[in-house]
Amino acid sequence: MTLDPVILSRLQFFWVISFHILLPAFTVGLACYIAVLEGLYLKTKDHTYFRISVFWTRIFAISFGLGVVSGIVMPFQFGTNWSRFSDTAANVVGPLMAYEGLTAFFLEASFLGVLLFGRKLVPPWAHFFAAAMVAVGTLFSSFWILALNSWMQTPAGYEIIDGRFHTLDWVAVIFNPSFPYRLAHTVTAFLVTTGFVVVGVAAYHLRRDRAVAESRNMLSMTLWLLTALVPLQVAIGDLHGLNTFHHQPAKIAGMEGHWETQAGAPLILVGWPDQKAEVTRWAVEVPYLGSLILTHQLKGVVRGLKEWPRQDRPPAAIIFWSFRVMVGIGLLMLLVVALANWLRWKGRLYDSAWFLRVCEACLPLGFVAVIAGWITTEVGRQPWVIYGLMRTADAVTPSLTGADVLVSLIVTVAVYLVVYPVTLYTMIALVRAGPAVEEEIDRPIEGLQRPLPARAAAGVQAVVESRP
Amino acid sequence: MTAPLDFVPLWTLILGFGVFMYVLMDGFDLGVGILFRRAPGDAARDIMMNSVAPIWDGNETWLVLGGVALLAAFPLAFAIILPAVYFPILVMLMSLIFRGIAFELRFKAAPSARHRWDAAFHYGSLVATLAQGFVLGAFVQGFRVEGRFFAGGSFDWLTPFSALTAVSLVFGYGLLGATWLIMKTEGTLQDWARRQARWLLVGVLLAMAAVSLWTPFLQPKIMARWFSWPNIALLSPVPIVTVWLALWLWRAIDRRAEFLPFLGTIALFTMGYVGLAISLWPNIVPHSISLWDAAASPRSQAFLLVGTLFLLPVIVGYTAWSYWVFRGKVRAGGGYH
């Protein structure tokens, strides 16, 4: 067996980005939630908000830390493993990534310190401001990195001179055809993912009759948000799908398991797309529904994979199923939100044990959907790294040997398999402990959290208060 | 395509500034990690970690900026250098992960598991520094380039010279860490940091001397740069100022000064950086590709420059603010509280 540096580099990229994306999927939403809680606390002085905010900020600190260090890995991959892509596309890609760093990373990192450690060192409004800046930073980051990803999916505003990309129009580059839809779909997905985590945690504590005031607040507020966002996400997803249908029809053909171009195409509910035989086996179909969804017409024409030469087709089985996982979870979420509103109307939102169990079970769903969606869009783009213009196989670093990448892949996998479970374990412990009672909250978010002897604590207090 | 303006000098300055900020800022917090296991007791370790906990991820952000600014402004250099140092970069990134999560998890771990995070923080910092030192050594030695690609082997970076620069950087970051601790702590921990700073300074000076003497022999061009007339006279202030700074720093530590040792170490690093720049100018891929040959298209450089010239001062501003919030000595018991 020969080791192919392209396949191994793709596996490595898949590995590091899949684990990395779990963190923004959580921290983007959580940063916004914390900023809202801090704002509500500043305005109402209601300590419930304060206790909830402190509780989530501790969890946020851990996930953000891991997000930073797993994120630093990402841009370096572009150089180490995909140097030909970097050389070819840097005129477009480089400034977008640099703007992410300049507008987002420094904002997040600098204000995070104040958010975590600075509650007693700065006035309350400045602490709220720091929380808001962290949230804004995460959104800026999403903006730039998704602009870049969207440009690789639907390139615009460029010209190619001597085999390398040059920009003609930066507005066209950034606001390329798929960007608005991808940005809306991804950020909403991140918010919904966080929402289900908060709901799950609140349900966990409510079922055990602990931290009741905080948990009710979390559950109620977040379910209102999800009531708005989950249906919205379904609508945005539909628009994003139509946009993909327009710009990347081969991806849609793979996602739908369509091989033949047909008017009045069915919707294949389940089946197994067979890349070699060019058919979708064991297909369960609903007539005309495929065309209806994609073209909003009963007899609309939907192109099948056979329209493209074999070497230009994405691997259909993967994206057929990842897409169904994502959509399935979306529909499940819709059901949960509907149940929640029905129970709220009945006045039984907080004491219906079976519903709280459902909420707990749904806690990780958002993460699964985000990964599945990410796989759909990225694998569906194959065999291109820049859609229709540069093949993934031509993007890899020429000097790399298969053995090099195999070693780095094994190291990366091993490190992540240690680091992620340990971090998750610590987060679960914090979640189980629940919001702290008032006296404990005087301790810092991070740093020395062992119980202090009363006299030492009083001494520290005196030192802090004596500062100008 | 002719450019009306040459953005390369400005981008060289910005990239140079970004990389130097990274070296100084992550340098001292990596240095604190390097010294971590030698520290006198758990209480001292708590204080050491708290002295950098609120600012370390801001410091590491300069590494991202250095990387993406290289990609954006000098993409050819990015595409050649990173493959050439594939394994040191991998090891550095993985080590940074371990030490990064140690900040978050050490204080939350059960007392019995704490020593594991102490080890993760220490060895993560040490190995990341060694890896960066190997990258530095490989960079100074130069890379084998064919066309637009790195054409050497995956272990070209591993040489006696790069081993020397790796060890040198451990001394250098260690000194930054020790003098940071002199500034941020008091009592026995501060006394301990002073003792560390002294022997680390000796190590740094020996390392600087060894690297400076070895470097000209790597490349005839570097030899000519320093030792041809009139350069030898014009550049002689560089080593002279460095020696003077070292003496001044030694006395500052001896006089039990609080801030000056850290400032002196920064000045020493500046001299090393200037010396390196003189040796390698005008190449960004030593010793074959110049800054101008590696530059991105003027339109891309211009687009990013507009934002950078506005954002960089803002970033420096709020970074300074966050350092200001956490100013003063770190004390036992309460961290910053």
What do you see in this structure?
The complex is a heterodimer of chains A (468) and B (337). Chain A is mainly α and 468 residues long. Chain A has 14 helices and eight strands. In chain A, the strands form four sheets. Chain A has a two-stranded antiparallel sheet with strand order 1-2. In chain A, helix 1 (5-44) crosses helix 12, helix 2 (47-80) packs antiparallel against helix 3 (83-117) and helix 6 crosses helix 11 (353-361). Chain A is globular. In chain B, a hairpin with a 3-residue loop joins strand 3 and strand 4. Chain B is globular.
CATH topology tier name of chain B: Formate dehydrogenase/DMSO reductase fold
Radius of gyration of chain A: 24 Å
Into which percentage range does the β-strand content of chain B fall? under 5%
The structure class of chain B reads mainly alpha
Return the string of H and E elements of chain B. Answer: HHHHHHEEHHHHHHEEHH
The level of helicity of chain B is over 70%
**Gap between N and C termini of chain A:** 69 Å
Strand content of chain A: 5-15%
CATH architecture descriptor of chain B: Up-down Bundle
Gyration radius of chain B, in Å: 20 Å
Provide the low-confidence segments of chain B as ranges.
none
Shape of chain B: globular
Main sheet overview of chain B: 2 strands, antiparallel
Overall average residue pLDDT of chain A: 87
Order of helical and strand elements of chain A: HHHHEEHHHHEEEHEHHHEEHH
The CATH class designation of chain B is Mainly Alpha
Ends of chain B: how far apart? Answer: 58 Å
* Number of separate domains of chain B: 1
Number of separate helices of chain A? 14
Query: What is the SS-derived class of chain A?
Result: mainly alpha
